[in-house]
Amino acid sequence: MAGNSKPLTPLRYPGGKSAFSPFVKKILETNNLVGGHYMEPFAGGCGVAMDLLFDNYSKHIHINDLDPAIFHFWQAITQEPDAFLSLLSKTKITIDEWYRQKIILQNPNDYSPLIHGFAAFFLNRTNRSGILKAGVIGGKNQTGNYKLDARFNKDRLAKLITRIAGCADRIHVYNYDAIELINKIDIILPEQSFIYLDPPYYVKGQGLYRNFYTHQDHVSICNALGNINHKWIVSYDNCSEIKSIYKNYRQKEYNLSYCACNKQKGSEVMIYGNNVEIPKKPISEILHLKI
Questions:
Q1: What is the pTM of this model?
Q2: Cβ-count burial of 103 within 10 angstroms (0-12 exposed, 13-18 middle, 19+ buried)?
Q3: Domain with CATH 3.40.50 in the chain
Q4: Within a 10 A sphere around the Cβ of 99, how many other Cβ atoms?
Q5: CA 112/CA 144 separation, integer angstroms
Q6: CB of 247 within 8 A of CB of 241?
Q7: 46 phi and psi, to 5 degrees?
Q8: Which helix (H) or strand (E) holds 173?
Q9: pLDDT digit string, tens, across residues 176-233
Q10: Class of 18-66+176-286 per CATH?
Q11: For residue 214, how many other CB atoms are within 10 A of its CB?
């Protein structure tokens, strides 16, 4: 799948849409929204948001995540980057440290947001596929082909974090439930803004995310989007339930290769708000997807 060959975000994320940036850029161009504000109510790894920010497609990005661990990570690297980088430099990547960081992640009230955010980062880089609920790379006995530090290049990660911190005045971080945030969008965002939602997967969300959704949660997101004036798109795993929920909106199917424990190709569906002008080229051509 086409996209930036170099990661722009320090987080690995199941179902992350970093390579989706060319399509979102085309949407912004088509709808005359280049240089405006961009929001992700389900931020996660923020791969698309960072690409838009660094390429100046969006002047400001608004990233939101209900999971306090992910929120604390983004809050820490934008508000306390020096302290975060110090932790990165001095923390050893060992199985004993993995156990310690897991305890911190599970007990956020016992630690500062900085320490809790670093724990989320540490486990994201050392767990299989970046899933906070998953086990450690290489197993607890470290007998696997890859060890827990296989995705933990400190120098590269420090450079990524430093680059993001340098744009902190253009990054706005929130910790709302997505529906609550959507209900505030007309207040938070100026008119020239675009919203991209990538909610938890309908079918496999419970196994991948700490905050997964019920059927009614997905319905509520759809209902909330119907009440806002800003332009938006939503990407989902392609299933009959989602198609039915969004039956009043335009939908386009596509195949997307992603990694969540193992490489696989998944069918997904893009849903467009009624006031969004869709690019003439299909998603598959813009992203150079293999059909």
A1: 0.90
A2: exposed
A3: 18-66+176-286
A4: 11
A5: 33
A6: no
A7: 60, 30
A8: strand 171-174
A9: 999 999 999 989 999 999 999 999 888 764 444 455 688 999 999 999 999 999 999 9
A10: alpha beta
A11: 11
